[in-house]
Amino acid sequence: MLRELPVSEIMTTEVLTFAPGDDVRDAMRELLRRDVDGAPVLDGTEVVGMLSTGDLIVEEARVHLPTVITLLGAYLELPSSKKRFDADMEKALGSTVGEVMTAGATVIAPDATVEEAATIMHEEGIDRIVVIDEGGTLVGIVARGDIVREIVREFDSVDGE
Fold first, then answer.
1. pLDDT-derived band of residue 124, with 50, 70 and 90 as boundaries?
2. Interacting residues of 152 by C-beta distance below 8 A, sequence separation 6+
3. Can you give the pTM of this predicted structure?
4. Residue 10 in contact with residue 114, Cβ under 8 Å?
């Protein structure tokens, strides 16, 4: 039964990875070449983040200018607004993977079930989970597409019986 199947049975094992110091343009080209939407970022063997096509889209249209209010003729800039503007600009202008990646990554063990992976993806609103072994070494990645492919395969095998 699919929900009890370990993710090791459906995960991708030849995983594209990046290092924090990799050039963003090269990373974009590699994601396109491999036709994948995201990849883990490794510092040595440690997973430190995820790089997705969403991180790579130039966010100039989404860079929010700092909010300024006028009070008795003085212009005051809201500190939280300035902080967000600085972070947006830094991300938009980043030239390395480490500057634009999403820090941290959701991880799961190879013996976790497909049901567990699907639940995590749903609850966290993510598209992929990094699969690591007991020592913390990357062994694969499981994406929504991997789960959907298995669901279709299971439906087809039931219909074909």
1. very high
2. none
3. 0.73
4. yes
**Average model confidence (pLDDT) across the chain:** 81
* pLDDT exceeds cutoff 50 at 53: yes
**Is 7 a residue whose pLDDT tops 90?**
yes
Query: What single letter denotes the amino acid at residue 160?
Result: G
Spans of all domains in the chain: 2-160
SS3 call for 12: strand
CB atoms within 10 A of CB 112: 17
Q: How confident is the model at residue 3 (pLDDT cuts 50, 70, 90)?
A: confident
Q: Kind and range of the H or E element at 154?
A: helix 144-160
57-64 long-range contacts (CB < 8 A, ≥24 apart) are 58/92, 59/88, 59/91, 59/92, 60/92, 62/88, 63/88, 63/89, 63/92, 64/88
* Count of C-beta atoms within a 10 Å radius of residue 41: 28
Q: Which CATH code is given to the segment(s) 2-160? A: 3.10.580.10
96, two tokens: 């390395």
